[in-house]
């Protein structure tokens, strides 16, 4: 059996870790806050980054969203028409080969003989059992996995039960670009093998911290699985920031390095596009845009003009 929890990890690590309900609203990127408009145009939020004769139209994305989510794509289609390229997040590489090697050689390092419920602190074990019921699964299904792997499996099962997709809306936009014959370029590569290896190095305390972060994400989504997607589709950036800003990722040591790397690589990708005259379009995860020091703030600091199209 393939180690599906850590293949899933590749697609989850860059997502925002949810905040606890009692926490104050997180800070918003100064650039985003300064460009906030009251009368919102239809569809998701767009920004324009320009330098000289070059511009990049940025659409922020979120994940997960309901499979059936509909959104107004007219503005995006208009900007894709005649665009030089579509810039998308890092491409996952080495998946099948890394998974097979990992399954044969290292899978046992994610397994435990003692049931998970007996390895977790009582309060965390109770949360896990409650969340498993929300995902329509018995908690015993995850008994023999280490906490982080169990949490990832549980989150995957919750997504399926709630009808959520972690591929959309980026998949939708990429297909749109293909039909419009717009070339697609990714920010970089996310190597499965290195992520799988990092996952086996977590100690007991780190495993518990990562599990808590994953359970928070499930619990935030459980009450209203479609709320995040609706806020995104209507450019409600305050709501998206409240629901999606990556507070808490510092508790899980797998999250910070990847998030920081994605901010740097995505900023560099937009900077590269700005060196060539013409228009590009970029889809960038909101977790890289809304936080202070994110992609738009860095581009503004580097002298690019950032406004709304």
SSE order and pairing:
Elements (H helix, E strand, L loop, with lengths): L3 H9 L17 H5 L11 E6 L2 E8 L3 E2 L7 H7 L5 E3 L2 E3 L1 H11 L10 H4 L2 H13 L12 H16 L1 E2 L4 H10 L4 E3 L2 E3 H8 L4 H19 L4 H7 L3 H8 L10 H19 L4 E8 L9 H7 L3 E3 L2
Parallel strand pairs: 2-9, 4-7, 4-9, 5-8
Antiparallel strand pairs: 1-2, 1-10, 3-6
Mind explaining what this structure looks like?
It is built from 14 helices and ten strands. The strands form three sheets. It has a six-stranded mixed sheet with strand order 7-4-9-2-1-10, sandwiched between helices. It starts with a helix and ends with a strand. Helix content is 46%, strand content 13%. It has one domain. A hairpin with a 2-residue loop joins strand 1 and strand 2. The N terminus is likely disordered. The protein has 309 residues and is of the alpha/beta class.
